[in-house]
Amino acid sequence: MDVDNDLMRLAGSSKMRWLSVETLHCNVLALRRCNATSLHRELMVKQKQHFLWWMTAVLLLAAFFRLFAIQDVPPGLSQDEVLNADIVHFIRGGYNALFFREGFGHEPLYHYFSVPFQLLLGDNVLSIRLPAVTLGLLLLALTMRWVRREFGANTALFTGIGLAISWWPIIFSRIGIRPILEPLLLLLSVWFWPKRPFLSGLILGVSLYSYTGARILFLLPLLLAVYHLLTQKSRRTKQKNLALSAAIVLGMALLVSAPLFFTLQADPTLQQRVDQLDGPLKALLQGDAKPILQSMVATAGVFSFTGDPRWTYTLPQRPLFDWVTAVLFYAGLSIALWRWKQPAYATVLIWLGITLIPSAVTPQAPSIVRLIGALPVVYLLPSLAITAVINALKSAKEPARYKPIINNLLIIAFSLILLLNLGRTVRDGFIRWPQAETTRLNHYQTVLLDIARNWQENPTGNLVVAEAFFEPIDRDSLIRNLGADPQARWVQTGSGVAGAVVFPNGGNGRFYVPEFAPPAPDLLKLSGIDRLPSFRSQTQPSFAIYELPSTPPTLTTITPILLGDSISLIGYEIFPSQQTSPLVVYTLWRVEKQLPADLAAFVHLENLEQTIVAQHDGFDAASVTLQSGDTVLQRHVIDADQPLEPAGYTLYVGLYTWGNRQRLLSFDQKEDRFILAPLVIDEK
């Protein structure tokens, strides 16, 4: 009727009388179609704008959870993070590799990605963790775009919120290690499948340079091709095209990843970590299926029943979801299974199944780091369930007066789920986990972060730091927490070593000692250090500060003996005075020049037949950190395996390097050991 009325008005117009009714009818319909198309286009633009605004809000929320207190959560740097920063430093110095040997074997892509951050920001905590933050936010943004394309805007929004506020994606976007790169590259490869197979295959091949777990991703295009071949039997042309696309993807991926596999084949010792994780597979090959079945069951339950058993990234045995969100996850999984004939849902199922494998076939399952490739689809599945509920309620034929009530109930329900997940993340991820003693003591170098902050507040004197067992990575961690090198001297103290104290050249030394590495009381006493520290932190683990005397202690003096043209023996002391075993011997050394990094001292107790009956080997001052003019007081505990016979003995001392067991010679190149003192062991 509206069209007829329009025609009558147009026909009555003097300007339009020459047109036929048929022509007028066509023009009106075309005008209306044009208006409808224009309105549809405007609606699509508005929907896209609304989605972009919501996406921006989600990204800002995600950025907050990834940047807030970034130096404190995780609580200090892990050794893996420091090692990654070392590799970046090596790359800047010209060291390049397709697979780095350091850290039991590392794929290189993340380290090369981190180079610009270290160049721009310096070698510090921020440049270590910002690459992961960047990749995590990029993963979230691309996941939302991909989900919107495949499943709609609402599902994309809910998926993005899940990724933004959940602890699993948050922790791997805060810690400066390489796994977060794997799901990003996998997502990009899926994005271009199957229409742009060359690009999809290129990215899939590159993903193998991101993380060890990515090696299983070759199965994805293969299984997708099998799926399409089985579901497109009536469309021969499409079958052939999909088979060709799969072949191109696999071929490109193999071509791109071939240099990596050739490198690993040429030197299998590069990937020691893989050998450490193949226990269940080896047991299966030997006929024992129990270990791999246990890993598979544990991995399958990670969403609601089980959790990662380690403290490294989360509270142990913490499932990925609370029970409410887990129900939504299983509902979304059921929806995907029900709609498996639709390619988008089949892709999600195949993706999830493949990325569960690295955890399911390795020990200590479930491992959330080895499950990292599943991140996008794991948070997509609950979103499918939420969207299904919304769509079902929208299509229901309730009276109009109930619509506002239902909408309000939906808003309340989803708000409660959001608050539940937020509270769980804050409680477990930002409070309980980083404050737990196991996290701070065994997995992160929290005490070095606390020492660095104390030193920044009071940056006076020469810094001496104790560790239970010194590694260069400890020194690097302190430097990166400070953002500068304080030229600290390092020593080993605690129950596992004899112990040493360094008196820096120029005096004014401040000695930082973690609670897990207390110096022996007699070492403190002989060093002239007060038994009670001048300060003890309230953090966990705590550390104590001792003020070092301005001059080294006075021991039994000897004519200085110069060894290796770099260090001199200037004194010694023997305890206890009754000369019974075990003996505690102190040697005093003055550094003359730069020392070998693997320097060690030996003290031998020999009988009259010049047979070694007891000895101590060790130099508990980190020689690589010592400077010319420093003085080292080294403690030696000499305890014989058997009670010593009453007789005369002689104490010998010398230095050598661990690597080649080569002793340092005296200045005249004639002697490599020296008599400290004769001893007589009586019957007492």
Automatic annotation (TrEMBL):
Keywords: Cell membrane, Glycosyltransferase, Membrane, Transferase, Transmembrane, Transmembrane helix. Its main location: membrane. One of its GO terms (biological process) is lipid biosynthetic process. It is a multi-pass membrane protein. GO terms for cellular component: plasma membrane. It is found in: Cell membrane. GO terms for molecular function: pentosyltransferase activity. InterPro entries: LipidA_mod_glycosyltrf_83. The chain crosses the membrane at residues 51-70, 126-144, 156-177, 197-230, 242-262, 320-338, 345-362, 368-393, 405-423. PANTHER family: MANNOSYLTRANSFERASE YKCB-RELATED, MEMBRANE PROTEIN. This is Glycosyltransferase RgtA/B/C/D-like domain-containing protein. It comes from hydrothermal vent metagenome.
